[in-house]
Design goal:
InterPro entries: ECF_Sigma-70_Domain, NTF2-like_dom_sf, RNA_pol_sigma-70_dom, RNA_pol_sigma-G_actinobac, RNA_pol_sigma70_r2, RNA_pol_sigma70_r4_t2, RNA_pol_sigma_r2, RNA_pol_sigma_r3/r4-like. Residues 1-35 are annotated as: Disordered. There is one protein chain. 46% of the residues lie in helices and 12% in strands. Strand 5 and strand 6 form a beta hairpin. Among the domains are: 27-108 and 170-217, PhyR, sigma-like (SL) domain (Butyryl-CoA Dehydrogenase, subunit A, domain 3), CATH 1.20.140.160; 231-342, Nuclear Transport Factor 2, Chain: A, CATH 3.10.450.50. The chain is built from 16 helices and 6 strands. By secondary structure, it is an alpha+beta fold. The chain is globular. The chain has a 6-stranded mixed sheet.
Length: 350
């Protein structure tokens, strides 16, 4: 999963400057930042750094904290930036160290389907698990650049999908960093080796092991990215919203894939199969009747802010589509916190 048109720069202040379009580092990127323009130059890298930290950590909240810590360290240490590497490379080095520090001793985040087999309709929902258990959703605008090469944008969207981010968490932290830098951001092995104070041979070995781990889980980093929504998929989403808001189970059944899954973090329980998903909606999920859905975009896929019939927050839905059907519904129930992250009101706007 490589963004092939953007070469990464060296990630150490002691390396050679990264080549620009003409093969040489640009003066603006190479020169030591002056105090008066440092804030603006740091801020210009916030989105891509947030995407990197999100892939590393699996949490939008932790990613934003990590980027803020990166900015603080860069601001305080700018006098040590000597311009022998690019500012972007220097920031990635700091961000990597921040993430590796945060991951020390922590357990990996996951999706409900990564932890247990699907439940049946008569399974009690159980007790919610701590937020640190779960891969969380992230708004597209926080992690994806608004402009750029369409192919690179498609690859970036694919690399923040919930399944891929969850697969990344199976990797040891340094392997995770290597795979993201090499396969997602197209850094060279020598650049990654400099960033990690390692050798090219060690980086190549880590990448090989990371690829093997992801291949064993069915998450191939070299797989082609999903295409933007076409007219048929947009129509499918409209039919899904209409069926869900009208609580029309016959219409909902028509848009769900036979093997559709439903998960509801912070609960570990999840369901597989159209019949069980619809059965849940008619049983324990009957509180969804009368819901309002407001469209959003999360993790490179369609998403919705779901409000109860009385206009209060219910869930942040991330919806996956394939083969002309809805294949997965991820309903994150930490609604108020997530609505604030996504910038949507805590009362249905009408």
């Amino acid at each position: 999963m490589k963004q092939s048109t953007h070469s990464a720069e060296h990630a150490t202040t002691g390396g050679d400057p990264a080549p620009g379009p003409d093969g040489a580092a640009s003066d603006a990127d190479r020169r030591p930042p002056e105090r008066d323009d440092l804030a603006d130059r740091l801020e210009a890298h916030r989105t891509e750094l947030t995407g990197y930290c999100y892939r590393m950590l699996g949490s939008a909240f932790e990613a934003e904290d990590a980027v803020q810590e990166t900015m603080v360290r860069a601001w305080r240490g700018h006098h040590r930036f000597e311009g022998r590497a690019s500012l972007r490379s220097w920031l990635y080095r700091i961000a990597t160290n921040v993430c590796l520090d945060l991951l020390k001793g922590s357990s990996r985040r996951a999706r409900p389907m990564d932890l247990a087999s699907p439940a049946s309709l008569d399974t009690p929902i159980g007790t919610g698990l701590p937020e640190t258990t779960w891969i969380g959703p992230v708004p597209d605008e926080r992690v994806l650049a608004r402009a750029g090469d369409p192919a690179d944008t498609a690859l970036a969207r694919e690399s923040v999908r919930l399944a891929f981010v969850s697969a990344l968490q199976r990797l040891a932290p340094r392997q995770r960093a290597v795979l993201i830098l090499r396969e997602v951001l197209s850094w060279s092995a020598s650049e990654v080796a400099e960033l990690l104070d390692s050798s090219v041979a060690s980086v190549n070995s880590a990448l090989q092991r990371a690829r093997a781990t992801l291949a064993a889980t069915g998450d191939d980093p070299a797989a082609p990215p999903a295409r933007p929504l076409d007219a048929a998929q947009r129509d499918l989403l409209k039919r899904y919203v209409d069926a869900f808001e009208r609580f029309d189970m016959a219409a909902l059944t028509a848009v769900l894939h036979e093997d559709c899954t439903l998960s509801m973090p912070p609960y570990a329980l999840w369901l597989r199969g159209r019949a069980d998903v619809v059965g849940w909606m008619l049983g324990p999920g009957c509180g969804c009747r009368g819901s309002h859905l407001v469209p959003l975009s999360a993790n490179g896929t369609p998403a919705f802010a779901q409000y109860r019939a009385d206009g209060t927050p219910w869930a942040l839905q991330v919806v996956e589509l394939a083969d002309g059907h809805v294949t997965a519904l991820h309903a994150f129930l930490d609604a108020e916190r997530l609505f604030s992250l996504f910038g949507v009101p805590l009362r249905y706007p009408g």
